[in-house]
From TrEMBL:
Stored InterPro entries: Aldolase_TIM, TAL/FSA, Transaldolase_3B/F6P_aldolase, Transaldolase_AS, TSA/FSA_arc/bac
Pfam family, one: TAL_FSA
Official protein name in the record: Fructose-6-phosphate aldolase
Top-level taxon of the source organism: Bacteria
A single Gene Ontology CC term: cytoplasm
Gene Ontology terms, MF aspect: aldehyde-lyase activity
Keywords on record: Cytoplasm, Schiff base
Species annotation: Candidatus Coatesbacteria bacterium 4484_99
Cell location: Cytoplasm
NCBIfam families referenced in this protein's UniProt entry, alphabetically: fsa_talC_mipB
Transmembrane parts of this sequence: none
Amino acid sequence: MKIFLDTANIDAIKEVDAMGILDGVTTNPTIISREKRPFRELVEKICEILHPRPVNVEIISENPKEMVAEAKEYLKISDNLVMKVAMGKIGLEGVKRLTDAGITTNMTLVFSASQAILASKAGARYVSPFVGRLDDISSVGMELVGQIVDIFYNYDMKTEVIVASIRHPLHFVEAALMGADIATLPPTAFEKLYKHPLTEIGIERFKEDYKKIPKS
Ligand code: E4P
């Protein structure tokens, strides 16, 4: 399973990239706004670190023709940008037009299997089911991921499933068990993948015991 970071924070991206396990980045307007930096400068920097790995940015236009123009502007920043398009009637037409123009898309804000099927048929390279937001309203987000993975497998649909809105390691592990292509995690959830209290206790104990070893 590929690992994307769901952030626009340069330090967080660099930290995970240094581990050699970063396959891409996803952003959205909320994530970008947290950084309080000019949009273009920030996206340029992220693309530079990640290139040629994908960096996802959100399309804002609400008109399918304008989406193509907006995407072409973004692509002047870097050719590893992927266009996130919000699910819906307009979004599906946008994905079709962008795909026809040779532009890579990620259909975002996906909350049902029917939405994922349509996104794939419209030409989306990625679909992003938001599992945490489903859990928040007492639906089991990961059940949706299971359905989408099965459906795409049944019909040999090439669209990759990005498990988004991940909140904790169980989402991540379940995503891998289900065969999802990608998990995108905010840095806070990513940290929880490698931290374990028994590891910390073990390290401390080894350090203490090392001191007890005669050095000569
Ligand atoms: C994915 O591409 C989205 O940016 C993200 O996962 C949304 O997560 P949230 O529900 O934590 O805002």
